[in-house]
Every structure is written in C-alpha cells, then in structure tokens.
Amino acid sequence: MKTDILRQKFLDFFKSKKHKIVESDSLVPKDDPTVLFTPAGMNQFKRQFLGQITDFTRAATSQRCLRTDDLDKVGKTSGHHTFFEMLGNFSFGDYFKKEAISWAWEFLTGELKINPERLWVSVYKDDDEAYAIWKDVIKVPDKKIVKLGDKDNFWPSEAKAKGPNGPCGPCSEIFFDFGEGVGCGKAGCDPSCSCGRFVEIWNLVFTQFNRKEGGILEPLPQKNIDTGLGLERLAAVMQNAANNFETDLFQPIIKE
C-alpha cells in the first residue's frame, strides 16, 4: 500500500470517528518558545490540552516533525529520520483510554488488515486501567502485554523526574514484530529489547497531568489523548519492507 494512501486512510478513519482534520503545523513553531522545531503532533494543541475551549474536542493530523534528540540515531536504526511525518489523533477532555486503544486496534487490524499475531503492546507499569483494556476488551494475550517504566512508557520520557514542565502522562505503545529472524535471536526477546525485532509504530499517550517545577504532577482540567503513529514505520510494515528506507517514500530518492 502506497504511503499517500496510508496517510489518507488514517485521516478518513478518524474523520469517521468525528475528528476534525487539522493541517500540519509549521516545522518551526511560531508561538512555542519551548522547542526549536515541531517534534510531535501534539505541539500545536498545547492550549487545548491545558483546558482552553475551542470549537472542537477531537482532532487528527499528519504532522511534519523533526527531533534533535533522534539525530544521533539516524542511519543506525531502521526507523529514525532527520525529518518524518507523525499521524495522530487527539482528544481534549472528550474520550479517553478505552476509545483510544480500541480505535488504534481497529485501524491496524480492521482497516489495514495487519495480522494481530504480529502486534505486541506495552503499558506503563502502574497503569492497571490500560492493561485491563488490552487484556479484557481487546483480548491481547498476557504474554504480549509488557509493563515498562518511566523511560519507556511515560511521556515525555522520564518527565516526572526530569521534565520538561507541561502536559504529560502514562502511555501505551503498539509494536510490530518483524519475526525471530530479525534482531538478537534470544528466546525471551520482547518489546523491551532494543535489538530491532520489535519496532514501535504507535504511541498512545494518556495526557492527564501538568508537570510543574519540582516534579509536581497536577491533574489537568480534563483527561486528554495524544497519539503518534509513525507514517514511515507504518509504510514499512504495509509494504513488507525490511526497514523504512526500502519503502516508496525513500526508494525514488535513493535510486536517483
């Protein structure tokens, strides 16, 4: 499936779920002095996450992004880039964990027909609610639900201890399993291993706190959803490519 079709399928899917389709924000944000470049889809919605009322409570985007933290990983992994697109769906005090998890699963396994046997998930170690939704509602087997800590499953990573200040919360990630022939080859390999067998394709962030100075986590006026689905990584999965660079996004450039 071509990448342009994937992008449109995502936006159409969430439009059918009553989301407003919002244009990608500038790669250099004009009203946010906390970042040099736009690193995620949620950045243009910070006001909404902090409780400011707008004319919509659900949004979906395909956001152009650049993460300076990732630059030293480019060329060393199959899924990091100097520039990338992040598909995302957002809720500002509307739906929460159950809907975000259910719709992500529906899009991947229903709309895109990805084999659920190839998908694993992670949840924050203290998030019993998300764990129960994956296990009891979505019916993901116990062995495919991995509990991880602040570095991997709280967003921003380690925000409780290190910051930055602002909206944050626990998250749940969906991984694609490229198979036993990829990576370390160890019998107990799972998404906590960085060998490359499991690639995170979608991060569901349950944004429910505002971090303040001193590491204080203040509950936000409403509970929010912020998700990020890597378009390049999804294209690799859907095009049966070994890495992002073998997809239709990069091959014409490489061949030229």
Model description:
This protein is an alpha+beta fold and 256 residues long. The protein contains eight helices and nine strands. Strands 1, 2, 3, 4, 5, 6, 7, 8 and 9 form a nine-stranded mixed beta sheet that branches. Helix 3 packs parallel to helix 4. The longest helix is centred in the middle third of the chain and has 15 residues, at 97-111. The protein is globular, with a radius of gyration of 18 Å.
Percent of residues in helices comes to 25-40%
Overall mean pLDDT: 94
Strand content: 25-35%
- Number of distinct helices: 8
What structural class do you assign from the helix and strand content? alpha+beta
How are helices and strands ordered from N to C? HEHEEHEHEHEHEEEHH
Main β sheet profile: 9 strands, mixed
For the CA atoms, what is the radius of gyration?
Answer: 18 Å
The low-pLDDT segments are none
* Backbone shape: globular
- N-C termini distance: 22 Å
Number of strands: 9
Main attributes of the structure:
nine-stranded mixed β-sheet, 256 residues, single chain, 9 strands, 25% helix, alpha+beta
Explain the layout of strands and helices.
Layout: H1 3-16, E1 20-21, H2 46-49, E2 58-65, E3 84-92, H3 97-111, E4 119-124, H4 128-137, E5 145-148, H5 150-153, E6 154-155, H6 159-162, E7 166-177, E8 198-212, E9 216-230, H7 231-238, H8 251-255
Parallel strand pairs: 1-2, 4-5
Antiparallel strand pairs: 2-3, 3-9, 4-7, 6-7, 7-8, 8-9
